[in-house]
Amino acid sequence: MRTASSRDFETAVGWAEREGWNPGLDDLAAFHATDPDGFLMGFEEGEPVSSISVVRYGADFGFLGFYIVRADRRGAGLGWATWRAGMARLSGRTVGLDGVVAQQANYMTSGFELAGRNIRYGGSLPSARIDAVEAGDRCAILPASPSDLNELTAFDSVHFPTPRPAFLESWVLPRPAATAEPPTRSSLIARRGGAIAGYGTIRRCVTGYKIGPLFAEDEAVARALFSTLTRGRTTGRPVYLDTPSDNPAAVALAERMGLTPVFETARMYRGPDPRLPIERIFGITSFELG
Asked: What CATH number has the domain spanning 120-283?
């Protein structure tokens, strides 16, 4: 096992794609910028055979993802070795993960406890359905900008176990385009009375688009953000939203937009549950980094 460069870890992103996880086209750049030493890979005779991301946030929290053994090397004990190396890097921290159904029992034997279920909703959005959504109650929807970072970090930290400014800078804020191609992601902030009332990011993925995070003070703000993020962008392509099942308003929003369940994970923690305000989380950020 060794720390993987961003280039090395592109192999793991390819494995995730083949597993059906549908990664974003430029997710890895934002992931790696958050904690460059938090991506590990196992090798046999110079060939990559396993991966795990164990990203540190602040002093007390970490998130585990990309736990994959190459399909042709499963059953050889590589997964356990990879797991131990990853968990060692997060020793002493509360650790979160979003576990696929097949692995949840294994995670429990390692001390993880269930905090809730996430359901990925997906489907195509008829433009009439998007345009019919009201713009929210006295809510201004504006593009996120670098000047918003401090305020956005404070708002985000209500919905995540710890502040994550480095991640947000790469994930949410626009970056100068290196080519004439349109940007692969866009982020919007909802303001009510001048203060942030919600924000969301939409990004291109291998298949369609994902929205995440989608954090909002209430359902009206979430609807306004969802509508504005998708309008004029998603025609003919599916859209995915990873909703906490314990937030009925989030589930109702996805269903109102005509989306249907396609995938399920469990949010699990080893260590104290941070008790996030689920009623304000309409879409989690990602299954890989929380």
From this structure: 3.40.630.90
Percent of all residues in the chain with a pLDDT value above 70, rounded to a whole number: 93
Q: What share of the chain is helix, strand, coil (3-state, %, to 5)?
A: 30, 35, 35
DSSP structure class, residue 91: T
User: Which residue spans of the chain are classified as CATH 3.40.630.30?
Assistant: 2-117
Superfamily of domain 2-117: Gcn5-related N-acetyltransferase (GNAT) (3.40.630.30)
Domain with CATH 3.40.630.90 in the chain: 120-283
- Asked whether the beta carbons of 41 and 8 are under 8 A apart, the reply is yes
Distance CA 40, CA 285 (A): 21
Kindly list the distances between the CA atom of residue 53 and the CA atoms of 41, 45, 62, 67, 89, in Å, as whole numbers in the listed order: 9, 22, 10, 7, 10
| Contact between residue 141 and residue 225 where contact means Cβ atoms under 8 Å apart | yes
Please enumerate in sequence order all residues whose Cβ is within 8 A of that of 23, keeping only pairs 6 or more positions apart, or say none.
13, 16, 17, 205, 206, 288
| Model confidence pLDDT, tens digit, residues 7-54 | 999 999 999 999 989 999 999 999 999 999 999 999 999 999 999 999
